[in-house]
Amino acid sequence: MNYTIIGIDFGTSTTVVKVKHYCEGMNPKDCQPLTFYKGNSCLPTLVFEDTGGQLYFGYDAEAQASAGTEGTLYKNFKMDLIGNNEQQTTKGKKLIKEFFKYIYSEFNQSRHRLNVYPTIKTYVSYPAKWTPETRSLMKQCAIDAGFGTESNVSGESEPTAAIYASIAIHLEELQKEHIVIKNQPINVMMIDMGAGTSDIAIFKFRMDNNNKPVIDDLITYPTVDNVYLCGGREIDRLLGDHLSDYVKRMSKNDQVPLAVPSC
């Protein structure tokens, strides 16, 4: 059976959608990216809402904000799903649902160019530490947007999705180096660092008799109950705080006032 796989990497700051075709009796074809403004394969995870309630997504959202249009630019709203502010969480859910609808409309317009088969399987990724409820929400957003039904839309933790994507790209090279041998498991550690969260996964990986990747004994960190996210924005904040404290200490020791540039 011939079918098309759609992989949706919905990131805190950037979203990427890849399309891959599987033809019976043939090796899988290379991934093709869903492209957006000016052929970009990365879509900024942004939503702009003007004062009339009109929503703009990705590059259009950037353009509206840059043009000085009255309204609100929403970013990092993916992380609102795990916050303690109920109002922000509700708004975040709405923005994600609308963002997925936009992605699907762009995909639908590109079906012919991407040579999409009638049979589709869709995978959407999410951080490893997200709860089952939040994971289900991501899957439901893809279903509601039009990517499929319960039977052909699945979710994968981000480190798991990352290893599947990496293996697809480097499999031939890994086999030539005898790192990956059919039905011989190897131990793998995958680190997936994003703007909102960083995930670590340790597992056993092997290729089965049908040359399909199999992951066993998967352990992920941080766990669902862990308070840390370890994303890029958290690390930026920590580095910024450390630098600010250092400058203040040095200025105080040297009795030099800390100059703050006006802008």
TrEMBL record:
Organism annotation: termite gut metagenome
InterPro entries, A to Z: ATPase_NBD
Name of the protein in question: Chaperone protein DnaK
CDD domains: ASKHA_NBD_HSP70
PANTHER family associated with the record: CELL SHAPE-DETERMINING PROTEIN MREB
